[in-house]
Design goal:
Helices cover 40% and strands 25% of the residues. By secondary structure, the chain is an alpha/beta fold.
Length: 256
Amino acid sequence: MSDMFDYDAELRRYNEHFRAAARVGPRDQVLDIGCGTGQSTREAARAAVDGSAVGVDVSAPMLTRARQLSDEQGLANITFQQADAQVHHFPPTRFDLCISRFGTMFFADPVAAFANIGRALRPMARLVLLVWQERDRNEWATTIRQTLTAVAAKPGGPDPFSLADPTVTEGILAAAGFADVSFTDVHEPVYYGPDGATACDAVLRLLKFEDLLAGLGAADAARARTRLRAVLDAHDTDGGVYFDSRAWIVTARRNH
């Protein structure tokens, strides 16, 4: 499996909840932030039969794959754009709905970023986000990270849990011009592959563990890999390797 398919497989239990919450209408003009290889964008485009979907991501390789898959599936009402949604000049008041599946947690200035996205939305347009809850409610983050004890405590870097606190996130969205913010608890496992070996490869790439291991000496890195494989094997069920996780579906409306 490639990175691109692994990520969609990892989140397959969440995707059903997210698609239902998005409630894409047949005439909707949809903006998908951090779309990756475009699974959520394609699903929006299929629902918006008389509308359109635009996927935005910073990764050129992922967008190349997104375009290929969309072409293969014959979707004519979909486009992809390489851009940083935090600062990109979107067409003003263009979209009825903005969606993002785990694509908004890494904004450097979240208020400014969401305000920029908000300017692309029509008055009262909907915002639907999927974001991780706190780290200690996500076994994939706590248990797997403990296998790298030598680097687990290193501070800094992107924080996938930056929108985990509902009070903080509601404040960010309110300051950015959104109202009627609500949170729905989603409790599903994440999937890393059909067996421990495949899962080990997926975790090393998806969670950037190769980068973390590079900071260790050879002996420490080897021990960390052994611990990681043991943890993954321990979570190998008949249906694959799963870890417990929790996320929020966040919904809001553009104020004006």
